[in-house]
Amino acid sequence: MEEEAQLEINAAKLEGLEAIRIAVNKWNHNENLHWDLLAINKGIANKLLQSRYRN
Predict the structure, then answer these.
(1) Which of the listed ranges 10-19, 29-38, 43-52 does the model predict with the highest average pLDDT?
(2) Which residues touch 48 (CB under 8 Å, ≥6 apart)?
(3) What is the mean pLDDT of residues 2-19?
(4) pTM of the prediction?
(5) Total Cβ atoms within 10 A of residue 23
(6) R_g over Cα of the chain
(7) What are the backbone angles phi and psi of residue 37, rounded to the nearest 5°?
(8) CA distance 3 to 1
């Protein structure tokens, strides 16, 4: 089940932040999965997803 959730999250990354939020919410009810979500700037998150962020 964890692998299925991860595959869905990976696919959502290609679509953007809203798709990731939807995917996480879909799997959030499962007590066997643990999410480490961080509050970050939306612009930085988009760049991270697009592999364009450099620090």
Answers:
(1) 10-19
(2) 40
(3) 85
(4) 0.54
(5) 20
(6) 12
(7) -95, 135
(8) 5
